[in-house]
């Protein structure tokens, strides 16, 4: 058992192996990866799994979702905020730290069940003094403004004075290890004692002057007695450091507790921040560290009841899937509709914490089925930024609402016009100019969210308004080509970014058409049955019957390229005229090998694609295509997809299973589930791949379990269990019920109602009544 | 040749081996030692030999002499000021640095002739890219406000963009690696571009708000063409960072030059600092880096002409002695009479840059004989602080002037009342309470300075005033003991700090007596021949005939303990009654082994002493003792001295030679000369032992060369050449002449006049006329 690597109180506290992600030894080269894997988030903030004692190889970032700043960079990005992890222990000036000492024993583990990070180290310093340092940290989900660290420190072969530095580090900058990109997004407004002791630091973002306060107190106890003495506070520029020491005796354990709180002006008035933080810490200390941890664990218990997927007979994959679910669910915020989920969650700095189409297409289904309040917040986030999307459309010469390719807090386009490569070369980035399908994703997200949650209230009010404005955008984006009597979307990029730009990307055109069609029907529904909502919509949007009429024409005549006379959909106009290069070799992981042809020509000159594009369309709009169409297109494009994006394999896996090709589905899932754990994309140091975590969940639930919602709105379960699995078990919300779905090796399914009413479910083509467990 | 380890232009530039101190390989454990050894000073400031690229194990201190601050520490100490060394080079984010790369070739060398630090490294990064980085740095002595770095950077097996970070680091704090003592002595008042590029940073001391400005510019050239592009300035909190990049090509060398300037409010008004620094850098750039270096070298050429000691036949020792002379002469300041020389020069932080008795007793003779302007400044420093010394005496309940044991800028006592050990234990420090002989050292220093330099003007004016006030102190410090009809100084500590406090320390009592006697005679001289100075003195000091009369009595009746009926002087009253422990064993370096007896008792209970005490008295006041007395006491105390202080061996060496015991003298000199080079005291990381550098010089000149000034004022040379030496050659100033003294193996001496008039010299007992070379 992994917990056997920990001792005493800690061991008793930790969960069994299926919940534990272990770092069994320290390798500096792996440190940044583990910082990402071991990041903790409570939805409000996220902090990477950096070591308390700091070090040379670290990106010790803490982000509060929603605290963005641009300054002299290309885009508004999540500002690295003061890091409160710092606890340095010294014996006579010698740091007890992994980089300074010989490591006699090393274990760190993420306990996903309790959402805590545990460590157990035995470190020997240069003078041979050995210290056992164990501990846990957590960011409370019971109260997102409380977080802390508890260490158990035991001198193993010496007695003496141990010195403590309790640190809040405000020197942190974004892109800390990238000279060209380094940027400081905050300035310091306070670095002072919290109270008679402790530390309080306040920083403000440079552009908007949004203030964030962080405070902490540290205590050390032996046998329940407080023993920290000689406390001194120092403001070392942008570091707040509290010094203290205590007498340590061989074999006796000292407990060190650091209580931390953070607030921003988003939750409390600027002038109250220091008081707010102080009072929160006071309350935390009165409640007690372990009691707060208990409350936090209780919240996670409920979350896991809703979200956990259990696979019998496939231990490692079961745990890896749990890891993906853990990070995705931890980052979702059920309380704040002004934040989204960034492309790296809150675990790393790539993409600046921006929301992409990843949210709607990859992550939203998980939240809609499991945590509908969070899903609603993700939808509401888009509604809050509708005005900005309209301004964006105007700026680009279009009507309606064009959502930005990358979205931060204010809804302006955050995808930079210029990109600088690590080698310093600079190139114009056209993604924001050409890649419009994010607006389709927003529209589709509303449809899908409502389909899953039946949140008609959202649809009839906010949803309809967004869909109207996005439809308006598509209508204005389409060009009428008279000689062909059709509407076209030219100079556009679909999900496959290796062909940029193209004319008439099928995925984009199809979703534009769908958006128009869907909103026309929705408005009709409103008109017929929801006159109040209808009137409001018409008033707000200034929509006229004439405009709707125009939309009818556009959607009818929008060009959808395909190979005439066949079922083969064409990714974009002219795709089939490109050199037809096919993937022929697969490596030892069954991963496609880049065809030889790409050595002499660019992918854009061939039919080789980066990721699911037509197949993505089939995934989203499956009900509008025949099984035959889906299978043929899947087969065609699968042979031409190099999966250059982490967003690709999960979709191919789901669709492969749908058309009966499970040859690669299991391996795709494995790749996706271990993508970050094994650092398969080599960039986990930059953070967890958020879309992939959602993709993993979809692969299991939509792919292997075959969950879908039929046109009749009935939940359908039609599993394709891989031979490796003995059983699969997970929960879903559907309509007003919470269901447990249990699937056996032979694809037989049991659906039980955990909460809410009994309902009918289509299981393997049979309609069955799911009842209470 | 050491310079063969460098290439191209650098190799041509460097000096021959007797001038070079080489670090042949990189060992992190040795880094702090080499930072001290490789520190550079121009008298105005000192900067440790830290690496341009920074690192984990570093104490990258820069001090400007005179910029002190106390804040929450125990004492006013030299404030660590912003470090301007930072130049980081990156290839695609990978730092080209010794801690990050594989070191294929490593050489660093201090070129003492030119006072520059050179390096030559070949570093291979993780991706196998190899870069040759060579360079030099210097702090100009031709213009102490100019300093800079020149690097030669050559990619050996790649071409690409190299990124540069030009850094001024204001995050620096004193006692950086000692959690308990860490302190920030400055606050930042500016971190901004110098001009359209470059960096300007200004900090102020926290107590006195003394501002220091530091600015820099960086340029990169290939074939004479400026190639640095994409410049960006960032203020990262307390770091000023200028980013830039350039295209580097395999095998082509890029020259990077960093021009730096510093000014404080001591030299320029606060509001002019930025402009002053900018203009200085502009002037530096116009003049050119190599041209400024040339001017700097010319100054050093002159300094070496005056100061160099050449020993033939003993290469390593010759170079080690040069190393000591180099650091001592580099730190002396010929322009500023408000600064002294700290116990660690400007090369480390121990003792806070404070002046001790070390200045007068160990360092002053060197400066008086070689750089009399600097010696005069050291004397004037004490005169400037006479009022503070008077206040100090008053505070302690005495009259006259009591100089502080440790002296910074304002002359108040800087020796802390409390000391905290590294393990955190705290004890009361009585040094400032009991150790009064520093006041005797100041008085003796005046006498000795004038004896060597014949600066009668100083004596008759400032000197006489100091001596009067110190005499007054001693008179008030002495207690009359009626039953013994004698004056005593009780509760006092002499140079030997292992007996603290004692009654009637002979060294202290003797020098007090001497001070009184000397000033009485000086006043008499003034009265008889310098009535103006006499009147001024009487008026300034309020001295009366009655007081002088009292002094006569005190000095006559002051108790000088000795073993009655013998020549044996008693270190203090009751010393001979202590258990007589004698050193009996010597280790393989002929170093005394701590006697067994000290395992069960403290040194204070025995006659074992830390350092020269009676022997120090004999060294200073030799002319007042017979040769027999000197020999007997030397022999007695030598057997009881453990040399627990670096101030001890050199004095024993000098005195041993004087009494014909050259058995240990050569080894003592070797130990002293290599003390820092070989880190024999294990604390060279804290800085060069300043007193020891002066002691080394004295051992050679006063000991082996046997130089002294007779009672008739005539220069006497009476060498005791060790068998290891083939010849000894050095220069001195005496009266108004500069002399070259050349000594052969057989102790024959040639004295030539280099500058000034011919004069008579006593050589080996013969009076000879020294004439022009």
Automatic annotation (TrEMBL), chains A, B:
Q: List where the protein spans the membrane.
A: none
InterPro entries xrefs = 6-hairpin_glycosidase_sf, 6hp_glycosidase-like_sf, Gal_mutarotase_sf_dom, GH65_N, Glyco_hydro_65_C, Glyco_hydro_65_M, Glyco_hydro_65_N, Malt_Pase/Glycosyl_Hdrlase
All residue ranges annotated as the Glycoside hydrolase family 65 central catalytic domain in the record:
322-698
Please provide an example of a Pfam family that matches this protein in its UniProt record. Answer: Glyco_hydro_65m
Residues where substrate binds: 357-358, 610-611
According to its UniProt entry, one GO biological process term is: carbohydrate metabolic process
Q: Which domain of life is it from?
A: Bacteria
Q: What keyword terms does UniProt attach to this protein?
A: Glycosyltransferase, Hydrolase, Transferase
What are the Glycoside hydrolase family 65 C-terminal domain coordinates in residue numbering?
A: 712-768
Q: Does the keyword Transferase apply?
A: yes
MF terms from GO for this chain are: carbohydrate binding; glycosyltransferase activity; hydrolase activity, hydrolyzing O-glycosyl compounds
**Similarity remark:** Belongs to the glycosyl hydrolase 65 family.
Q: What is this protein called?
A: Glycoside hydrolase family 65 central catalytic
* Organism lineage: Bacteria, Bacillati, Bacillota, Clostridia, Lachnospirales
């Amino acid at each position: 058992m992994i917990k056997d690597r920990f001792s005493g109180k800690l061991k008793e506290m930790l969960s069994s192996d299926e919940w534990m992600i272990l770092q069994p030894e320290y390798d500096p080269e792996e440190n940044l990866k583990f910082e990402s894997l071991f990041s903790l988030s409570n939805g409000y903030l996220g902090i990477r799994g950096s070591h308390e004692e700091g070090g040379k190889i670290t990106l010790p970032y803490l982000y509060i979702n929603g605290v963005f700043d641009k300054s002299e960079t290309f885009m508004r990005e999540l500002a690295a905020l003061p890091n409160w992890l710092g606890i340095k222990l010294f014996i006579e000036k010698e740091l007890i730290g992994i980089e300074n000492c010989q490591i006699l024993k090393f274990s760190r583990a993420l306990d996903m069940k309790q959402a805590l990070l545990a460590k157990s180290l035995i470190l020997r310093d240069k003078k041979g003094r050995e210290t056992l340092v164990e501990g846990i940290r957590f960011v409370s989900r019971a109260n997102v403004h409380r977080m802390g660290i508890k260490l158990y420190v035991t001198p193993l072969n010496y007695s003496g004075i141990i010195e403590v530095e309790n640190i809040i580090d405000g020197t942190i900058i974004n892109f800390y290890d990238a000279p060209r990109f380094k940027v400081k997004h905050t300035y310091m407004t306070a670095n002072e004692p919290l109270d008679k002791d402790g530390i309080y630091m306040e920083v403000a973002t440079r552009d908007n002057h949004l203030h964030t306060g962080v405070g902490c107190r540290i205590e050390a106890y032996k046998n329940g007695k407080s023993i920290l003495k000689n406390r001194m506070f120092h403001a070392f520029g942008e570091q707040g450091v509290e010094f203290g020491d205590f007498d340590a005796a061989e074999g006796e354990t000292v407990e060190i507790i650091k209580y931390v709180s953070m607030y921003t002006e988003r939750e409390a008035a600027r002038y109250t921040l220091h008081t707010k933080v102080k009072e929160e810490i006071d309350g935390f200390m009165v409640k007690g560290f372990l009691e707060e941890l208990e409350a936090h664990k209780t919240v996670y218990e409920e979350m896991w009841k809703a979200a956990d997927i259990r696979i019998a007979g496939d231990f490692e994959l079961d745990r890896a899937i749990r890891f993906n679910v853990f990070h995705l669910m931890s980052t979702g915020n059920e309380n704040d509709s002004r934040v989204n989920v960034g492309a790296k969650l809150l675990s790393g700095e790539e993409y600046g914490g921006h929301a992409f189409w990843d949210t709607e297409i990859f992550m939203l289904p998980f939240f809609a089925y499991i945590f509908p309040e969070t899903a609603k917040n993700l939808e509401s986030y888009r509604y809050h930024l509708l005005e900005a999307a309209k301004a964006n459309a105007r700026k680009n010469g279009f009507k309606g609402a064009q959502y930005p390719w990358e979205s931060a807090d204010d809804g302006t386009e955050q995808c930079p016009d210029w990109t600088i490569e690590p080698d310093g070369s600079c190139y114009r980035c056209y993604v924001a100019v050409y890649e419009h399908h994010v607006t389709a994703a927003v529209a589709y997200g509303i449809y899908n969210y409502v389909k899953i949650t039946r949140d008609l209230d959202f649809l009839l009010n906010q949803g309809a308004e967004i869909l109207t404005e996005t439809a308006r955008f598509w209508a204005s984006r389409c060009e009428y080509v008279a000689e062909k009597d059709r509407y076209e979307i030219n100079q556009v990029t679909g999900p496959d970014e290796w062909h940029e730009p193209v004319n008439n990307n099928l995925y984009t055109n199809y979703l534009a058409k769908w958006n128009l069609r869907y909103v026309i029907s929705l408005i009709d529904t409103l008109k017929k049955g929801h006159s109040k909502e209808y009137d409001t919509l018409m008033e707000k949007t200034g929509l006229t019957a004439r405009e709707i009429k125009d939309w009818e024409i556009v959607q009818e005549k929008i060009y959808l390229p395909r190979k005439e006379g066949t079922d083969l959909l064409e990714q974009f106009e002219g795709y089939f005229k490109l050199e037809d290069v096919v993937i022929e070799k697969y490596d030892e992981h069954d991963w496609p090998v880049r065809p030889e042809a790409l050595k002499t020509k660019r992918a854009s000159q061939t039919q080789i694609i980066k990721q699911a594009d037509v197949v993505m369309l089939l995934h989203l709009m499956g009900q509008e295509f025949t099984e035959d169409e889906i299978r043929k297109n899947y087969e065609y494009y699968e042979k031409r997809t190099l999966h250059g994006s982490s967003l690709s394999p999960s979709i191919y896996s789901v669709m492969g299973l749908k058309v009966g090709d499970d040859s690669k589905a299991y391996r795709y899932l494995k790749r996706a589930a271990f993508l970050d754990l094994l650092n398969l994309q080599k960039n986990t140091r930059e953070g967890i791949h958020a879309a992939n975590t959602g993709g993993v969940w979809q692969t299991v639930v939509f792919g292997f379990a075959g969950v879908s919602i039929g046109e009749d709105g009935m939940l359908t379960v039609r599993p394709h269990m891989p031979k490796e699995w003995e059983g699969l078990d997970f929960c879903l919300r559907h309509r007003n019920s919470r269901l447990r779905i249990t699937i056996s090796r032979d694809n037989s399914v049991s659906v039980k109602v955990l909460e809410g009413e009994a309902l009918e479910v289509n299981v393997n083509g049979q309609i069955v009544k799911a009842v209470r467990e």
